[in-house]
Hints:
Oligomer: heterotrimer
Radius of gyration of chain A: 22 Å
Helix content of chain C: over 70%
Distance between the termini of chain C: 8 Å
Shape of chain A: globular
Number of helices of chain C: 13
Distance between the termini of chain A: 42 Å
Strand content of chain C: under 5%
Order of helices and strands of chain C: HHHHHHHHHHHHH
Number of domains of chain A: 1
CATH superfamily of chain A: P-loop containing nucleotide triphosphate hydrolases
Structural class of chain C: mainly alpha
CATH architecture of chain A: 3-Layer(aba) Sandwich
Order of helices and strands of chain A: HEEEHEEHEHHHEHEHEEHHHHEEH
Number of strands of chain A: 12
Strand content of chain A: 15-25%
CATH class of chain A: Alpha Beta
Largest interface: B-C, 50 and 65 residues
Largest sheet of chain A: 8 strands, mixed
Amino acid sequence: MTDESAAAVMTSAQSGQDDVLVRVDNLVKYFPVRTAGYVRRTVGHVQAVDGVSLAIPRGKTLGLVGETGSGKSTLARCIAGLLPVTSGKVTFDGDDITNLSRRKMIPYRREIQMIFQDPYGSLNPRRRVGAIIGDPFAIHKTVAGNERKRRVQELMERVGLNPEHYNRFPAEFSGGQRQRIGVARALALRPKLIICDEPVSALDVSIQAQVLNLLADLQRDYGLTYLFIAHDLEVVRHVSDSVTVMYLGRVAEEGPRDPVYRTPRHPYTAALLSAAPAADPDAAASRQRIILTGDIPSPIDPPSGCRFHPRCPKARELCSQEDPPLEVKAGDGPTHLTACHFPVEAGENLAAAAAARRDAK
Amino acid sequence: MSISGLEFQAAAVEGAPEQAVEGRSQWQLTWRRLRGDKVAVTAMIVIVVMVGLAIAAPAIAALVHHPPNIAYPNTGENAVGNPVGPFTNGFWLGTDDTGRDLMVRIFYGARISLFVGIVTTAIGTFAGVAVGLIAGYFGGVVDTILARFIDAVLAFPYVVLALALAIVIGPSLTVIIGVISFFSWAGISRIVRGQTLSLKEKEYIEAARSLGAGPFRIMFIDILPNLLAPVLVLATLYIPSAVVFEATLSYLGLGIQPPTASWGNILAAAQNFYQVAWWYTVFPALALLITTLAFNLLGDGIRDAMDPGTERLLAARRGTKRRRLERRAMKGAGPSDAFPDPPRQAQPPAGLG
Amino acid sequence: MSMLRFLIRRILTGIVVLWLVASAAFLLFFARPVATVSRQLAGREATPAVIAQVTKTLGLNDPIAVQYWHFIDSLLHGNLGYSYFTQESVNTMIKQDLPPTASVVIGGMILWLVVGLGIGILSATRARSFFDRFSAVAVLIGLSLPTFVIGEFLLLIVFVPLNQHGFHWIQDQYSGPSQGIGTWIGHMILPWITLAAVQAAVYTRLMRGQLLSTLGEDYIRTARAKGLSERRVIFRHGVRSALTPIVSQLGVDVGQLLGGVIVVESVFGLGGLGQVSVQAIDTDNLPVIIGFVIVAAAFVVVANIVVDLAYALLDPRVRIS
Lengths: 361, 353, 321
């Protein structure tokens, strides 16, 4: 998370495939929309994920950002093997794990774990915490009995919980503590990849910091790789080495964290960043917000061409006709890619453009 | 409960107890609440007494020297050949129309009724939970077929089925148990299926899948514990339905055949004597009423103990402020979405209509 | 989906169900060794010669498929067979025995709905009052007692004493409305109460529970705040939404009603479809039994369609599914 590690990211990306733990190639996930009745016809598709590629280097954190409906959670579940993929490929540590049968997927389940968003829903209220954390051991038949109990208590301690609470129920813990339980459960089998699906969104800000710090510590100690999904840009800035911004099932912009944050090229990224709260009140006051019109359109019937064009302050005719390719724009580093016909230039005042567009409507 | 992890660890180190602290499970909490519920406790005692009397029936018969199927025309009938009343000639509750000891027959009848009630409910519960779980969890084609089957069974007038079987096979205990189990299975299955369908969408189920858990592990270790509460209440309420069903079948001549005593066939015979022997009708009917009432009250009590705040019919004292506060607190906290109000189909049909 | 399509779908399903029931009845009785069947059909007292005759007449040695075809064929012509004791056609028997059954069912249903829903509404609006507690006890007892016990008790406590004291309005046995409405009611009042008692208990509890939870909702508070009279609030808003689950329960109950009807008819000696079918079973009178089963199934199917229609009227979402 420092400039040194950011530099390291760029070096490793250049050095090639071996360091990539997870690779996603052109993943597409459509959900069919069916009529009701005995015989169901498919009348359309929810295009949740429409051609997304990404690569997560070993030991690093990829931040995946987008609003609700962008497809980030669906993408995560496809990578985790919880949803079948419509087309595309998911590669884990060199192996193709796309649409594997449940049986074949079992060994990978030890390596890929998930932490969920809802601390109240992700733990079975009727089971004791020790049993919940011990689940991975039981399912994969690694250790049992006293040894399992010892390991579970070790995990509890590692995540900052009192191991004596082994026999308590989730209801007796606070939200932050429950997330720690989720982390302990994910950590049990020493996975390589942990997919964090908005792990702190449901927590108080002060607790968020604690959980994020815990995750950072664990990454350092165990060499974990994270896919970190969130909608809060400040959180993503704090934890990620590289960032991918999604909009309506496609990647709008991706690249190492600092270039994306300092010089966003996609208008959508710029708008998101302008909306993020700034700690310094003077900076906040002087900053101009780019306010977009409209809501995110329906993924069943996405706009033609560039999907962002109906809301984009810079949209022109080309944008509604042609889908912009994801490529390096002039002036950016080799790993900073943007999908836009008219990317944001330095010094451009998008806020004014957005305001003008709103007034024109 | 909002102490941060670090502060908590500090506190724990200072005052750490010697052994691990146990959380109280749902069952322990329910039992405590149930124990404090006077109505439910009374019901439990009544049931225990009933069961005890049923088991002890042979001993009681020996005590009064009147086996259940032996008629005593001399001591047991009056001059006109009608039954004698309570407390005459050593018959504590009187006799029936052939001079048999009514009390002994009632207790023997209790054996049948309770046996049928409990066994059929047990079978129905196991089968119902299994089918409901499978239908709800697997969904798709399996669910469609099973759900339609459950609907068909539930819609089927089970009396007609009992009648049909009575002809084809002949009335017997086995037939009754078969018919009643077949019916109670379907009702429980529908509830379990509904609950499973909604529980399946919970995030902790998704978490279990992401850990690599197989369908059966998820069904029995993750979903089932959340089902036990409504299933237990339902089962307790199905027992009296089964008892009543057996009594009605025997009454119609399709169940236990005389001379074996069953509350139903005793009452059937008693019909013709209601003008001359009120005890012949009243005592078996009372036994039936007390038994079913007790189970119904117990079921209500368990439901309330598991999820305080549901409107009960025969509520115990609701006055104390402490209980009211406790109830209000209970309503907000805790996973009571794991035990929602049972849907309308959760009432087992009252008797045979 | 429009109401018409909904209706047609339900009717088609109903016909399928009826066909299934008829076939099941057929299989149950006819698909057994010829000797057993013909013996049963000829009656218990038949001699071997009669049995042989019966076998021949009915074509019981024909292959099952042929027999099945005959069975369905006569069904479609409205012919349900002939009783083997009285040689009456089953159709006639049904015509004869329908009025008592219909009287019991219709009267009982109206009674239990009015009483059950009425007490339910009153209990909910006067929650925890003495009335509420009292009716709660009554409901609990109603739920715990079998129908036949209630019937017998009513006979014991009402019919017998009244008649002994010369008050003869209340009678058992059946007397049709054509023979005087007053007499009809006098004969039917106890059976109605018996049939209604248990069901009313169920519906009271249902209505009370539903209404209580509905009345606790915020939109009720809004309606009151708007100044709506209490009566309108309760009926238009509260009861209306409480009705949907009650209508579905009604659908389920209609099917189970048969059991109660049989019991009531037996206890009071009304001689309707229920009681006659029990007698038919006791005497192995197969054609009668089969005929009655099919008629009963038809009734259930029709009633369910009506209930479904009512449900769809109340809750438009159902029509779409």
